[in-house]
Design a protein that fits this description.
single chain, 305 residues, mainly alpha, 11 helices, 0% strand
Length: 305
């Protein structure tokens, strides 16, 4: 099959094919998970894949890695090869300056109190008991994963929580969905907002919907203004890696658990507000920087002509 075999398909047609690819890939990697965990841990390993055993952390980490690969990374890359003769450009793999990546890191660092503020506001919204219970279980598993004093476990967590999700989720939600939604709706902001809503909803953590939606909007906007998927991938990685590192420091007793709430309504909310404004201004500064570079390039091209 040649690259771009389905390039001429409509938006709806491509989305149907895209959904089918995700289903087949996720099923395939789940079967691999059942096989591997069955061989490694026996019946208890199979129960991890089925969601009936949440106590075997090593098995849970392995299935998490397989699921991220099967649901996000493989479908995104395969879809790009099917939908375009230039798959890497289709996914927006464009070169970007190191200083842009560095500025992205600073933005993520400064945004942490703002994320805590949005999270504390989100928690004021009443939700059903089953949603609260689902949230509690997800939080318990996350902390069991991340609270560690082992460097080896920390490195595995960086792979599982920061590297793979940053690559996979950004390729799916920004590289595929957002870009196609922008083209289909002919609106940058409609595409950004819809992709961000899907990005937040897919995590099924209702008390964290607003902060994750805000992150999705920020990641999406960074893609639109820079034209490179590397920027939202870097932002996503930095955000998750900082959280993973914070949990390790808490596990070692080197950081206070209060850092999770700094900037929230009950803990220095003014810092969260300042962080929100500063983050917005820094993201706008990146936009203006790329606009200036584009203008200079156009001026240079017109002089050459």
């Amino acid at each position: 099959m040649e690259y771009g075999s389905f390039e001429s398909k409509s938006f709806i047609g491509k989305m149907v094919i895209f959904g089918a690819i995700i289903f087949v890939s996720s099923t395939f990697f789940s079967l691999i998970g059942i096989l591997l965990l069955g061989l490694m841990y026996g019946a208890s390993g199979v129960q991890v894949v089925l969601g009936n055993n949440l106590t075997n952390l090593n098995a849970l980490k392995l299935i998490q890695i397989l699921q991220t690969t099967g649901i996000f990374i493989i479908p995104a890359i395969l879809s790009a090869f099917l939908f375009s003769k230039k798959p890497w450009s289709y996914l927006c793999f464009e070169k970007v300056k190191f200083q842009t990546i560095l500025k992205t890191f600073i933005i993520v660092l400064i945004s942490l109190p703002a994320i805590n503020l949005l999270a504390s506001i989100n928690q004021l919204i009443p939700v059903s008991d089953w949603m609260v219970e689902m949230e509690r279980k997800a939080e318990a598993i996350t902390k069991a994963f991340l609270l560690t004093d082992s460097i080896w476990a920390y490195l595995i967590n960086i792979l599982m929580i920061a590297i793979l999700p940053a690559v996979g989720e950004e390729l799916i939600f920004r590289g595929i969905l957002q870009r196609r939604l922008v083209e289909y709706t002919r609106s940058r902001w409609v595409g950004i907002l819809l992709a961000a809503a899907l990005f937040s909803a897919i995590h099924m953590q209702f008390q964290g919907f607003i902060p994750r939606f805000a992150l999705g909007v920020a990641f999406g906007y960074l893609l639109e203004v820079t034209g490179s998927i590397w920027v939202p991938i870097a932002a996503h990685f930095f955000n998750n890696a900082i959280a993973t590192t914070g949990y390790m420091l808490m596990g070692m007793g080197a950081a206070d658990k209060r850092i999770e709430n700094i900037g929230g309504i009950t803990d220095l909310w003014i810092l969260g507000l300042v962080s929100l404004v500063a983050t917005s201004l820094l993201i706008v500064s990146i936009k203006r920087e790329f606009e200036r570079e584009s203008e200079l390039k156009q001026t240079g091209d017109s002089v050459i002509e």
